[in-house]
Every structure is written in structure tokens, then in C-alpha cells.
Amino acid sequence: xxxxxxxxxxNNALSTPCLVVDVEQVxxxxxxxxxxxxxxxxxxxVKANPARAILSKLVSNxxxxxxxxxxxxQQCINAGAKPKHISFGNTIKKTSSIQQAHQIGIEMYVxxxxxxxxKIAEHAPKSKVYCRILVDNQGADWPLSSKFGTTNAYxxxxxxxxxxLGLHPYGVSFHVGSQQTDPRAYxxxxxxxxxVFQGLAKHNIYLEMINLGGGFPIxxxxxxxxxxxxxxTIRSALNEHFPHIMPRIIxxxxxxxxxxxxxxxxxxxxxxxxxxxxSPKWIYxxxxxxxxxxxxxxxxxxxxxxxxxxxxxxxxxxxxxPSCDGVDILYQKSNYTLPLTLTAGDCISLLSTGAYVxxxxxxxxxxxxxLKEYYI
Length: 376
Hints:
The protein is an alpha/beta fold.
């Protein structure tokens, strides 16, 4: 936890659970990525955290934005973003959303099917379109490999069709999976994308853009490669597969920009062995899967934890949320240990929770109020 958030928590008697985000850290993360890949255009993935304070800070840094819905587009516009700086980056869009986006001047739309392409052609004529291809997500803690994307062959077919429909075949996109820990995943996906460029060139269609998606990881409980290591691999692959004319490079980071900028303060509701002293102690928190910690499903994302008793003797624990749903267990197999003295009423901190927490928070499941948020 950085000193700014620590001081804020110490100086304010905040009810829990709550999320505190350091907006200056968001800006630093954005600039670090910009420095690592200076020739790329950063389209912040709004879904990671759409708080007005974050969007406004990124607008002031001349960021672009990746929006997944008309509502996210509105949030960007309200924060000061220009329509031409927003990409409609969801392959599944309501017709009314396409119409509204086109009316205000959104120029870029993604697709991965003929049906979606026809919708865009009808309701956003002459727009720039890019096709999402399916790539390997091996190495990602939170894979995204089955719901989106198509084959290289079909992408070529679709982009040829886009031109006949009066659209601008602009490029291809992919996503190597969220919290991707292997830089080589980008190299493989770039090589695959280059084949689409080459296939279309045979039909006199010359794509102009490659969207590398997001996936850049942050440190949770395990060390991950640095952004400089990812950048080195990406630059090498781009130079190898696009030796003559470099396309416009787009990135869609979410977690990397906001993840490590946030901390959740949560209260221990109960700490108990439940009658079996030989089993791990159960620690029940006032936040769980339905309060914003959806990425603990399968124990995929393992948040670091700080307590008031760090440094004292610890014991194995199972960590669960407050709801009456039996799946509301955060960590049972990940070998978490917490101090023996931890008890009901203590407040602990879940670190690196700035991404995909406030947006995953359900509305009053079991009557629990939505997560409170503070942006400092």
C-alpha cells in the first residue's frame, strides 16, 4: 500500500467495505506504459474502472478510450473525451448503441461475425472497422479465449466483405488474456495478425492498424515480467513481421493502468475454526464475490493482504465473503496465511484492487450496500 492511501485510511474513519484509489498512481501507470511503447496509442479499457476521476485524469493526459457499451461511451464523453478518440471495442453491440455512437461521431468499431458487420454497415456507414481474431491465451490468469474472435481465414473473408459494404477495413485486433504473464503471447498473436494483413494484401486491401488489446499484468502475490520486458518482445515481433510499413499500434490496457492504484479496506466479520482446530481457520470478510471480488473465481486473481498484525505468527486460513451463497469463498486452495491474532472487528487491506472491482460489484445482493469508492 502506498503512503498516500495509507494516510487517507488513517485520517478518515471510513465504513467498510470501501475502495480507495490513488489517481496520481493511475497517471504514473499510464505514463510508464507510454514510455515503454511510445509509438503506440493507448485506449484505456473503461470497463476496468470507469470512475469520473480516472477518466478525467486520462483525458488530461490525452488518452484514447476503449468502450464496451453506449453507456461507457457516454461516461467518456462526459469526462471530456472526444468521440474520435473512442473505439467501440465490443464485438456484441445493440443496434441502438451503434446508431447512437455513429450519431455523435464514433469512427471505429470492432466485429468478429458477418451479422455484426451487417449491423455496423447499416447503422454506422463508412466507419472504420477492425476484426478480432482468436489467439492463444496460455499464460493468462484470466483467459478470454472462447467468447470472442474468429479464425484468420474468416477474418480475411469478413474484411473483404466490409469493403463491399462500404465500410473501411481498418485493421485487426486480439486479446491474449487478462493478467497475461508471458510476453511471448504477444509475439505469437502479432505473427498471426501479420498473416491476416498479408492475406488481404493479395486482394488489394491494405490494413492500417493492429490492436494488441490489453492483458498487461500487475504484481499481486507473484512477481510478473516488467512492462519493459513486454515492450521489448512486442517491438521485436512488430519489426520482424512488419519490416516495411509499420501499422498504427493500439493498446487497450485496463488492469495495468488502474490495478495497483486501488486498495480495499474490509472488516473481519468472523474468525473461527468452526469446531475443528486441526483445519484452517475461516476468515469471513464484509466483502466477497458479489461485492466486487468476482476475479477470485477459481482463485485466479490472488490479492495481497495487509493486516494490523503483520510480522506476528500466522496460520493457514480460508477466506470467504459475507453472503449466504455457498460459492462466496475467495481463497481455499491458495495457501493463504494470516496472523493468529486476527479477529472479528479488525480491518484489513486487500491490495491492487483498483481494476475490475467497482464494476463487478452487484447491487445489494443479500441487502449489502454497493462498495463505497474514494478517489484521492
